[in-house]
Amino acid sequence: MRELRRSEVFDAGFFRVERVSLEGRASPVTLLRMPDWVMAVAVNPAGRFVLVRQHRFGIAAETVEPAGGLVDAGEAPAAAALRELGEETGYAGATAEPLGFTHPNPVLQDNRCHFFLVREAVQVGAPHADAEEVVAPVVMGRAEVEAALAEGRIAHALAELALRRALAVL
Q1: 138 vs 56, 85, 111, 152, 153, CA distance in Å?
Q2: How many other C-beta atoms can be found within 10 angstroms of the C-beta atom of residue 141?
Q3: Three-state DSSP class for 157?
Q4: Contact assessment for residue 31 and residue 17, using Cβ atoms and an 8 Å cutoff
Q5: Which of 35, 59, 73, 103 is deepest in the core (most CB within 10 A)?
């Protein structure tokens, strides 16, 4: 479909709402424009997963998930994954191994969520997350992660996909 007109409705800083009029459609389409995201599934030298417990305002509850966040302008997704891991957990790793990406919600959004595995992650300091984040590192064994996934205790769709991709290669 050919785009006829595009207008910004709202800019929240880390995402924008746009209206797009398309040829052949009676009503415009509403889109959420945002940067790509990353999730870093970290595993320490003992083979335990380094995850994050954090409050998620959208569901007014805590979740357990891999460290993750926005890819900054001009930043490579792998670098963003390592940065987010450090910010949210205080852990670091030498490399971020790509586990692919997904389109979180292609009906409304144009971004991707990139998944990475960080092996041999070691604690190098304390978490120093963004001011609006309430985070705490959580270390879990493989069996604990698998049970949390099976029982629905890890119910964040992107977190589940990232962890399942990591489990498949570990």
Answers
A1: 16, 12, 28, 17, 14
A2: 12
A3: helix
A4: yes
A5: 35
Helix (H) or strand (E) holding 46: none
The pair of three-digit structure tokens given for residue 168, joined into one six-digit string: 């498949």
Global pTM reads 0.93
How many Å apart are CA 159 and CA 42, to the nearest integer? Answer: 12
Token pair 């569901």: residue: 59
Task: Kindly report, as residue ranges, where domains of CATH 3.90.79.10 are found in the chain.
Answer: 35-169
Residue 74 is which amino acid?
Answer: G
The pLDDT of residue 150: 98
Residue 3 confidence (pLDDT) = 92
Residue partners of 129: CB distance under 8 A and separation at least 6: 87, 88, 135
What is the pLDDT at residue 135?
87
Q: Checking phi first, is residue 3 left (phi over 0); if not, alpha (psi -120 to 50) or beta? A: beta
Q: Are the beta carbons of 129 and 92 closer than 8 angstroms?
A: no
Please report the beta strands in the chain, taking only residues with DSSP state E, as ranges in sequence order: 3-11, 16-22, 29-33, 37-43, 49-56, 61-65, 67-70, 91-92, 97-102, 113-118, 122-123, 135-140
Q: What are phi and psi of 169, to 5 degrees?
A: -110, -5
